[in-house]
Design a protein that fits this description.
The protein has 258 residues and is α/β, with parallel strands linked by helices. Helix content is 37%, strand content 19%. Helix 7 links the parallel strand 7 and strand 8.
Amino acid sequence: MPIADINGQRINYEVKGEGIPVVLITGFGSDMPFWDALLPYLNNYKVIMLDNRGVGKTKYNGKFTAFDLTDDVLALMDHLSVFRAHIVGWSMGGCMAQELSLRHPERVISLTLISAYMRRPARSSFAMRAAIKAVNEGADMETFAMLLQVMCLSEPIFLRREQKGAAVSKRPFAATIDGISDQMDSVDAYDSRKRIFGISVPTLCIFGLSDIMCPPEIGEEITSLIKGCRPYRVPGAGHIINPAAYHKAMTDHFKENE
């Protein structure tokens, strides 16, 4: 995968396909393979993805904020000579998608927020801080991954895994505990509640009705604060939503604004 030397960092990224650009921004603790299940639905688009600072193969220097991560996305678009794109952000990536839409609306064809928030819920921050503490005190990263999945996945997924005798995904975790800690610091410092009403680009807000990491009332509030924002509620879905449940709503949103 190519590396872009931008903003003093070495950003690992990937570009797939041809067509109108779509930038996919993943969330806390996740690298580019997070989007694997969505990619087959975006065959007619030029899909741009990156590993945020703190995860995957991106090399970064020191602490960072959500604003720094947003600047990385914008700089990557410049690096690739992409002026405008559909912007899609999941969870923490939704913070960066919001910021890009607030600061550079001319670069955004449409905005899609998935399991997003304006200010991280206190319970979720407490849970993630406890998991980080456990690793720093001797637990392994598989333990952290298990706790993260407990917060992100819905009950039916765990029931199916239990029946198969495997409660946790065995895919190698994409980050070190230091990278996770730095991402958590950036999440805890972010708050768009007093600014989100300034988003003027066409917006779709997708959220699961069984999300415990970011409860559905947050999605409802985002919808109420962004003028013209359309909600797409997914019954039974947790924080990680199967793209099969929302891809049509999202690509319809793209087409309506191209």
